[in-house]
Amino acid sequence: MKTLEEKREYDRVRMAEWLKKHPEARERNRIRNIEWRNNNREKCCRATANWRAKNPKYESIRKLKERYDITPEKYQELLLQQGNCCAICGNEETARHNRSNKIQKLAVDHCHVTGNVRGLLCQDCNRGISRFHDDPTRLENAIKYLIRGSS
Question: Which CATH code, of 1.10.10.10, 3.20.20.70, 1.20.1290.10, 3.40.1800.10, is assigned to 4-150?
Answer without folding.
Answer: 3.40.1800.10
